[in-house]
Structure formats: C-alpha cells, structure tokens
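so ive been stuck on this for like two days lol. basically i have the seq below and the ligand is pyridoxal-5'-phosphate, smiles is in there too. i just want the complex predicted, nothing fancy, no docking runs or whatever. if the output looks off dont worry ill sanity check it later, just need somthing to start from for the group meeting slides
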Amino acid sequence: MHPEFALSSEILYLNHAAVAPWPRRTVDAVSRFAQENGTRGAAGYPDWMKTETRLRDRLAELINAKSPADIALAKNTSEALSIIAYGLDWEPGDNIVGIAQEFPSNRIVWESLSAQGVEYRQLDLYQSAVPEDDLIGLCDERTRLIAVSSVQYARGLRLDLERLGSFCRERGILFCVDAIQSLGVVPFDLTRSQADFVVADGHKWMLGPEGVALLYVNPLVRPSLRLYQYGWRMVEHCGDYDRTDWEPAAAATRFECGSPNMLGIHALEASLSLLLETGMDTVHAAVAERADRLIALIDQRDFELLSPREPERRAGIVTFRVPGADPQALYRALMGLGVICAQRGGGVRFSPHFYTPESVLESAVDIAASAARRL
Ligand SMILES: Cc1ncc(COP(=O)(O)O)c(C=O)c1O
C-alpha cells in the first residue's frame, strides 16, 4: 500500500467516485486542527488564513486558472451550480443544453429554471454515438449555456471538453463543467477547455472531505452574475467591520457570504498537496493503468463492461454487469464482503485511485465472480 494511505486490510476500497478515504497527511492536518482548536481556540487564525490562501493557490494550479482570485470556495457542487444558475440573467425562451443521465444536482438546478421560462434540452447519452456532436446539435440561437459533467458519474464517460468549449466560445454560449468526477484524476486545463464555470466538491478524486467545493467563474463573466447571498465575507473590504459602505468583492470571494469551512479547508489543502506533489500526469497515468487492468479482468470473466472501452473516453470509473446477476443484489453482496463500491448506471461501479494496489483489483473481481455465482 502507498505510504500515504492506511486503509483497513478488511476492505477493498473501490469507491473514489463516491467518497474517498483521506491520505495520512489529511488525517494529521485534521487532528492537528482539532487539537489546536481544543487548546488554543482560534488564537492562530492568521495561520488558518494562510492555509486557506494555499488551498486557493492549489485549486488554481489544479485547473490552470490565471489567478487564485478566480477561485471561490462553496459548500458543495450543488450550491456552486445553484450560484451559477440563479446568478445568470435568463429570458423566457432561452435554453440550456445538457445530458439526461447526469447526476441529479447537474439536472435539477437547470430543470428548476423552467419557472423562468427556460427550456432544458437533454441529450440521451445511451442513444448517442458521439455525444459532443449531439450536444452541439441540440443548440440553437437561443442556447445560453451548455452544462455537462466532464466525466459521467454512472458509467464514467469522459467528454471532449476542448471540443465543446471551443464551440461555446465561437457561438457565445456559456460553458459549465461539473468536474467532480475528473478533478484529481485527469489533468484539467482551463485554457484548453475554455470553461466559464468549473465546479467540484473535494470529497471524491481530490481525496478531501465533504463540504468544501471549488467554484471557478470566468472573471469576464463574474461581474454579471447576480448575487443572492450576502454577508461580511463577500465584500471588498472584508474585515473592516466598522465600515458602513460596502460593495461586493471584485474577486471570487464575492460568492462566499460568511464564515468559511476552516476544518474542511485544512483537510482539502493537505489532500491536494499530495496530488500536486505526485503530479497530475503521474496520477492520471496510474489511474488509467488501473482502469485498464480492471477492464482486462472483467473481460477475462466475461462480465459485461458498461463503461467506454477507449482510454480517452474514460477516467477512473469502471462500471460492469455480471450476466444473470441482479446488480443491486451483487452490489449488496460485494459490500457485505468488504468490497466498497457503488451500484450505478445499471451495474456495479468500481473506482480505484492512483494508489490502489493491483491486488485489490484482482481480489475484487474474484469476489464479484464468486458472489455472482452464489446469487
Ligand atoms: C457529477 C456529480 N456532481 C455532483 C456530485 C455531488 O454533489 P455535491 O458536491 O453537491 O454533493 C456528484 C456525487 O456523486 C457527482 O457525481
């Protein structure tokens, strides 16, 4: 096992696409933070703010944003998407293009805009050979936004963000990417994807806790996004409490109304330090190798692969079905046997990270085969 991970030998952890285990350094950062809170309260707050600054720096590096001032910290992906959806100025008849099989948070928020006369057009991914072509085909002169996940949560399809991003740029359409299933696995480059919005909570591939999310907003779009949460922290002169006049901060902190999740910030900062020290190219290559290996094992057993086969079409998610076995029953059996996974997209979803030993992949597939036989 990688020295940074201390997972119990009683489980095989293949669930990074749901909630990841923490690296040791994150466990230590949280323990230190708890200890400090218990013994010194917030006496060290200036140092906590330095950790927050480092987190913004690391998130900017992770997506290749020009400045950490472009990074806001939200509560979670859903809140970040809501800040975008309810910040944009819609007109009746506008439309949004997305995917029918998206994770609920990246569907519901767009559907909710029907109350403002906004149409949400959804591509059925399972009927589409080249989803980028078909998403583009759904757009017309009233399309204001394309909203997709970089990697689909259920079966792990990875989209060509560059293609969608350059189409959006040419046509003056805004581009919103829920990157929670790719940040921390696949290198992300804003200059290539040309996304106007990037959102992702830290608890999956970024190896952090739940409850601290990245919200990137293109600085050219930022001033036009209507604000609907207000408080001491989102103002330009944050900390000058005696001041009675105020204006929203020019930086992305304008989307952060009140006290930050300092505990989560300490944890995520530590987790990202591991990924960035390792290097995202190295992490990606290691995850891709593990996904390839899983697919080879699945093929050997004659299971049915539901994830894409082409390496450029996937990230860390491998979803499969065992012919004749009910996926829900198989999932329950696997969990009962210590294989931590998920039931998604009509099959069982395995999601290893860069540190997952090959033996874990082999054992998990062996256990799936014998569990399926007993069902
Ligand atoms: C694509 C996608 N978006 C968002 C989320 C989670 O949203 P939140 O951070 O609001 O809990 C998930 C979790 O499974 C997801 O797969």
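The chain has two domains: 12-23+279-374, 26-277. Residues 63 and 188 are 5 Å apart (CA to CA).
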